[in-house]
What we know:
By secondary structure, the protein is of the alpha/beta class. It has eleven helices and 13 strands. Helix 1 (12-23) packs parallel to helix 2 and helix 9 crosses helix 11 (322-344). The longest helix has 23 residues, at 322-344.
Amino acid sequence: xxxVLVTGGTGYIGSHTVVELQQxxxxxxxxxxxxxxxxxxxxxxTNITGIKIDFEKFDLADRKKTLDFFKRHKNIxxxxxxxxxxxVGESVVQPLNYYYNNLFSLMNILQGMLDNNIENLVFSxxxxxxxxxxxxxxxxxxxxxxxxxxxxxxKQISEEIISDTVRTSKLKAISLRYFNPIGAHESAxxxxxxxxxxxxxxxxxxxxxxxxxxxxxxxxxDYPTPDGTPIRDYIHVVDLAKAHVIAVERMVKKxxxxxxxxxxxxxxxxxxxxxxxxxxxxxxGIKLNYAIVERRPGDITEVWAxxxxxxxxxxxxxxxxxxxxxESAWKWELALYNNRKKTTK
Length: 345
Ligand code: NAD
Ligand code: WQD
């Protein structure tokens, strides 16, 4: 049984990936400092898969603790590195926290890999590296543009750190550039758990519909798009999770074409903010309270992925459509609501 270390495995994308890994027979160990996730996610994963998970809680930015972890775990075949801080707006006001957390964690993991002959790394990157691309759909050869936030910059610098390390060692790596992950596992036992007011569109929609927020603010309808609202490539988190399993398999079976590879993970289709709202209203039967307000600074007009490289090389294709995404997100919000009701009784 191959063993995979999943950093950030109690987080949103990590937890869905752990489920997919376990379901195809990988032995998983999670490291997470729970700075943006809850320990009961571990139990919820086990409820889905029937398999218990090894878990260690510590900060991967702590070099001593991270290297000590690797000394105690010699038999790791691959690492999926999700752990990072990810709030774009917060990164603008706390840049050093973001550089410290995201870059030291990565460098500590890479050092641990080199010291212990662990060769396979999958890294969570982001379509944010493309900024507003000149050509759409955007493929992996598009230039990386000056980052619009310290968060985005940590992804660009991380990709460079990985590429430099691969060049001078036996390390192999795959960076996966996610577009906009949304939705939740069909069981509604795991999903996105934003702390405080959500920054992202879909959690804000579902929290408004459930009554936690008064009104969704649509940030601008004067963009040069068909309905005036920005367009993104939303991808179901379970489709995304499955791509990680394939990436791990590719490296473990030594099928990588190059020591360092980069893939876009999206659906290849773009939806506007108003189209996402429409999809949500259709699947939930709820009329959403929203208002058009000013643009949000830093937002780009439109982006969607050219996924042909991932389709061809990984043999992976996103399967779930926008309605399945919004429906699963809504089912998850309803499950959270029912849990809150139970605990306040
Ligand atoms: P998340 O916040 O739900 O999960 C990240 C997990 O990492 C959390 O559980 C957090 O507690 C943990 N963590 C953070 N810093 C840590 C540290 N120093 N040591 C140990 N654990 C630490 O985020 P997510 O949405 O699941 O994102 C996973 C990865 O994907 C991140 O690297 C993120 O930047 C990237 N990404 C996310 C999106 C998105 O829209 N969600 C898009 C593109 C890329
Ligand atoms: C989507 C659309 C908003 C909230 C962010 C990061 C990116 C990546 C994914 C990590 C935009 C509009 C949103 C609201 C709105 N993460 N919106 N009202 O900005 O595409 O990407 O998450 O790597 O780096 O920047 O996602 O969900 O915030 O916004 O109108 O309350 O929804 O303007 O057009 P975004 P998002």
